[in-house]
Amino acid sequence: MTRTGSTGADASGVPDDPQELACRWSVYQPWLQADPVTPWARLREHGAVVRSEEAGGYWILTRYEDIEWAAKNPDIFSSAQVGIPHRDVFATKQIPIQLDGEEHRKWRLTLSDLFNPGVVNHFEPQMRQAAVEAIEPIAEKGSCEFIADFATALPAETFLINFGIGREYLQPFLDHKTWLRREGIPNARTDADLHAANRPLWNFLSDAIDRRRAEGTEGRMDVFSRLIESTYDGRPPTQDEMVNAAFVSMLASLDTTTAALGLVFLYLAEHPQVRHLIAGSPEKVPAVIEELLRHEPVSTTGRILTRDVERHGVTMRKGDRVMLSWGMSGLDPDVFADPLRTDFDRPSTRQLAFGIGPHRCLGMHVARRILRIAIEEWHARIPEYRVTPGTEAVRHYSPARGVARLEFTITEANPAP
Ligand code: HEM
What we know:
alpha+beta, about 10% strand, single chain, binds protoporphyrin IX containing FE, disordered N terminus, globular, three-stranded antiparallel beta sheet, 15 helices
């Protein structure tokens, strides 16, 4: 397929011509950063299987049923390359996200219990405490930049709590992560540069495992204690495998959860009636979270074809890349009636924010709990707030779609909980 010349664009730069829109589609396009939702709908109208020529070229499945079909057929849609563009983050494959087949199944067996609801319940008091300690100074101050002051630190602190790493390591952990995002990754020209950039965090996690071993693991619920005691395919996991799996959980959890917190709280700031619904009926919080994850979806991922496959009359070839936008799936009108409207009594709970099939999010119980704790503790202390007048939320679109900057002003005297 050849790329058409530019035929015009709307005020935000989104190409008018649907063919051009598809050809130039990339989660990094400046013109998709603020709002991919309208372009998603146009892409869907253009076809069920469309072709982008960005990042070496790839297919985009625009229908819920096709995204679900691809995710549930890993023998055709391999996870060996999940990024578009794909980069090898480590010298070895990422556990478990880049694995397929039996190897993936065995790793899921090893990892599946690490983030189960029982473990999340165990750590909930600490997670709640971390949230409260972040919210109280904001309530006192009367304003905040929500992403930096709350939505970035809480997922990081939760990660440390779940992995049994002391709170005193939060700042160095955040410093490493910020450096990696702002400098390490953007400046890495080759895979070797990228591996070197990841080294400080790799060492940070490896040191944490060594400390856990030295302190003892018996009776402990944290991820590292249980990983040290676990088996993979009948043998203990190696140190490198444990660091790899922890690193992947870190990559998979921090930006996604920050993004979800940003999008959910932006929605709540702009919809006082939903804040009041939550205050009057706290049991609605889980339904509000599910519906907002569908309505303001976060993640995009990729697959690589292991063989030729045909769908809707389009033949995709072995070795082709395929983008799965869980976000687009949530706004499919064939599955969700009137998808741009939020409906907290929606009967369908089939939203795919956490993926589906064998790679479905391992940390979804943790993620849902963070969102729930954040909503409950925030609104107990700060029921009334809004986007600070004169400021605008700055959205971003990348593999995790979210909010980069979000100023809040607390608008009324808030009671002590
Ligand atoms: C709102 C926050 C989150 C969202 C939207 C999210 C979304 C997703 C999605 C869509 C996938 C599937 C990827 C694919 O099929 O290629 C996934 C996988 C994964 N997620 Fe999450 N995630 C979130 C939070 C977390 C957290 C908190 C953790 C860890 C504690 C985590 C760990 C993982 C891991 C390890 C995988 C790979 C599973 C596998 O390949 O078998 N995620 N996540």
